[in-house]
Amino acid sequence: MKSRHKRFILIVLGLLVLGAAAMLILNAFRSNLVFFFTPTQVAQGEAPRGTTFRVGGMVKEGSVLRDSEKGHFVVTDTNQEVLVHYQGMLPDLFKEGRGVVAQGKLNAQSEFVASEVLAKHDENYMPPEAKHAMDQAALRKAVESVKP
Questions:
Q1: How many CB atoms sit inside 10 A of residue 51's CB?
Q2: What distance in Å separates the CA atoms of residue 83 and residue 55, rounded to the nearest whole number?
Q3: Extents of the domains making up the chain
Q4: pLDDT band at 19 (very low <50, low <70, confident <90, very high)
Q5: Is the N or C terminus of the chain more exposed, i.e. has fewer CB atoms within 10 Å?
Q6: How far from 57 is each of 26, 54, 100, 140, CA to CA, in Å?
Q7: d(CA 28, CA 48)
């Protein structure tokens, strides 16, 4: 075999290995990708059913019901609300009126069943999407209150 043929075969094999590695990486990335939705987007039906996603906003005052194994609370972006059910211990930093991000799925009753709850760790952190949604909802309320 000529050296040109050997080089061609090596290049083709290298491209095949790179292609297979890229496919494996993209498949792993796609299976671990979790989208974020606001309560308004969930209420409007933009959130997928049957797949895992995250919902974030503020924990509504007076909505938290806890017992030893279960927690129920409402997440709001001041425009819409989503009822969240969580099986397990809620984080220590979890409080009413503070930011929260919950990961899980919607059930048949359009209630969010969380598999993980992340409490806001300080006053400086909020996912950009949640902050934007909260700002938009506050702006809408301000505009509605000014209308005659």
A1: 11
A2: 11
A3: 1-33, 35-146
A4: very high
A5: C
A6: 30, 10, 6, 16
A7: 20
Tokens in use for 37? 């939705």
Structure tokens at 19: 């292609």
Architecture of the domain whose range is 35-146: Beta Barrel (2.40)
Helix (H) or strand (E) holding 70: strand 70-76
Token match 């409007």: residue? 44
DSSP string, 105-119: EE-TTS-EEEEEEEE
pLDDT tens digits for 101-136?
899 998 888 789 998 988 866 555 566 776 777 777
3-state class (DSSP) for residue 4:
helix
State the Cα–Cα distance between residues 60 and 97, nearest whole angstrom. 6
Question: Which has the closest alpha carbon to 37: 87, 80, 95, 96?
Answer: 80
pLDDT tens-digit series, residues 27-66: 887 767 778 888 888 888 888 888 888 898 888 888 888 8
pTM of model > 0.85:
no
45: left (phi over 0), alpha (psi -120 to 50) or beta: left
The pair of structure tokens assigned to 55 is: 């919902």
